[in-house]
Amino acid sequence: MTEKLAIGVDLGGTNVRVALGNSNGRILKKIYEKTDKSKGPKGISKQIIRMINSLVSEETSIKKIEGIGIGSAGPLDIKKGGLMKPTNFPFDFVPLVKPLEEEYGLPTYLLNDCVAAAMGEKHFGLGRNHDNLVYITISTGIGGGVYVDGHLLIGKDGNAHEIGHFTIDFEGRLICGCGRRGHWEAYCSGNGIPNYSRLIIEEEGLMKIEGSNLIEEVRRNGYAGITAKTIYNYAKAGDKIAELIVERIGVLNAIGFACVVDAYDPTLITVGGSIALNNPNLVVNPIKQHIGEHARNRIPEIKLTPLRGDAVLYGALASVFHQKEMG
Ligand SMILES: [Zn+2]
After folding, report:
1. What pLDDT was estimated at residue 148?
2. Model confidence over 313-325: pLDDT tens digits?
3. Distance of CA 201 from the midpoint of ligand 1 (Å)
4. How far is the CA of 310 from the centre of ligand 1 (A)?
5. For residue 85, how far is its CA from the centre of ligand 1 (angstroms)?
6. Could you tell me the distance, in angstroms and rounded to a whole number, from the CA of residue 142 to the centre of ligand 1?
7. At 177, is the secondary structure helix, strand, or coil?
8. Which of 182, 158, 167 is closest to 81 using CA atoms?
9. Is CB count within 10 Å lower at the N or C end of the chain?
10. Cα(171) to centroid of ligand 1, in Å?
């Protein structure tokens, strides 16, 4: 039997990554470029087409390829096959499926990037033996992809898993990127952590504390230089205030994970995204420690994804071979 091949695309606001892979979950070649937002909404698909052309050499002619999968940050409009008023792009609509289908005559599938990552986990990662599986990314934002009873959840617009927008603070002290208050992502994502750190420092009067390099830095330079990375790095170096902030983030993450466990009842949650992958113990341990205080359902295994930063690409490839799951 000839090898089955597919193209996978991971479209983000910063980078676009394209891979050629097979149905066994091997990535044969991959390339990435900065996402080109300068040529209007149609420029994105043109860039992807150019990248696919550079990957598909003559010996792996396009004829051997079964289809194209695209994992993209949302919000998606699955029916129209593109991105609707995307957060990452200054356009009302970015068409993706139609331009690629017209160019190659191949079936082309569009998924939310976290849904794609869940598919990658299910078929090429730790999820092979799990019918109830959630993938959670903790990165610039927080998102998820969910299997229940072997079915991949999609939703009316393809957004059935916007777990980053679960309300975890009913007092709504911080505003989320989506404009609503109190959402998980507003506190514990790469975008949220600097604001949450400032909130903790100010609400608890921590500027008075001596002997903290983190507080010293805020005294010197204000909050401008405080990022998720600086908070975790100070915590790794034993800074007590940074450790306190990381613990608070962990408690809120545990509440978010507990909501996921009670909503979807998975046997496995895998965790990806740069913040989790770069700080595995500081992110995952507090979740494991506190989740039992909040979840009613039986606690599942919680593990880092072995697919690392390629989870979306693996999932985009898997979507071509397993598109029945997408209903
Ligand atoms: Zn939100």
Report:
1. 96
2. 999 999 999 987 7
3. 23
4. 25
5. 15
6. 10
7. coil
8. 158
9. N
10. 14
